[in-house]
Amino acid sequence: MAIIKPFKGIRPPKELVEQVASRPYDVLNSEEAREEAKGNEKSLYHIIKPEIDFPAGTDEHDPKVYEKAAENFQMFQDKGWLVQDGKENYYVYAQTMNGKTQYGLVVGAYVPDYMNGIIKKHELTRRDKEEDRMKHVRVNNANIEPVFFAYPDNAELDAIVKKYTSQQPEYDFIAPGDGFGHSFWVIDKEEDITAITKTFETIPALYIADGHHRSAAAALVGAEKAQQNANHQGDEEYNYFMAVCFPANQLTIIDYNRVVKDLNGLSPEEFLTAVSKNFVVVEKGTEVYKPQALHNFSLYLDGKWYSLTAKPGTYDDNNPIGVLDVTISSNLILDEILGIKDLRSDKRIDFVGGIRGLEELKKRVDSGEMKVALALYPVSMKQLMDIADTGNIMPPKTTWFEPKLRSGLIIHKLS
Questions:
Q1: For 356-367, b where at least 16 C-beta lie within 10 A, e where not — what string?
Q2: What's the predicted TM-score (pTM) here?
Q3: Rg for the chain (alpha carbons), in Å?
């Protein structure tokens, strides 16, 4: 059962939230962060991408860059750009994209729940990326950015969330660039705080939707602090890390597509013949073709779109990994025909989030940079939860969640 707690959030005054809030650290590079923060000393990028305060080209993993993050975090508090709430609260964070709103509860998630599998993962993490975020958590003694969890739908939690979201939000703004809406409420009534904590105790598992590296880093630093504390009790703030938990039925996973540099020595005709061994191939012409259902794929090659439908017997509907379109396409096209064995390390393949649209695939092939594009039907939340529940791991680059959580609306201190 999931253990959570309220916490004293550190957050910007209402009138500064739009200046402080930023995109997450891992969706843009140093130069893009430098550009977005230009002329704005209050931007959270000074804490989550502190290399922007050094000359261009400075290594973001240099110890002095991490130290600058902590220095800036302290300065933001000293100047009143970030202020800690006087009591422990839960919070509601809502995001609106394309007219659809999803409502998440901001909570302190329990480090031992991550270690013992109550907080479930569906992706492998890379140690170098974990270590980078661990250094960031250690130096700031805080979770500066939240992780993104899903939980099985719950009517009691829905009712509490609705009670608060029918009131005036604390923050309410449209983010520049993507045009998504972000709203935020404080849950400060003791009876509601108690009810939320108790309701989570009936929820068997939480699922990491987005932020596997941040989750791992936060949990590992918490466990590290517990080991280092001779008087460890188990209720210290470092036993918890900040997560925004959304009901699974409100979340949308969008497609995560592939582009490949060459056809592994085959002509386009030979490649299509090879594909037709395991797929029904139908030419669709020059109009963009989008996959229509599970096991239907869209292929773009030499200025034409094709529908590919996996033939019966080429996949196993009873295997939570084998049934995934990312597995089918990886095994039967990328590996078997194109010779791409490792999606993590092969330089011939790149990945394009569905938020960019299938036009982006066409553009990258038409430019000559890539030779072929493959679009996949998105994974469902049910598939993701089934995989996590069975202890399986999804292949790399399977899920893309949108909208991303905005950073800087709230921060969790570890002491």
A1: ebbebbbbbbee
A2: 0.89
A3: 23
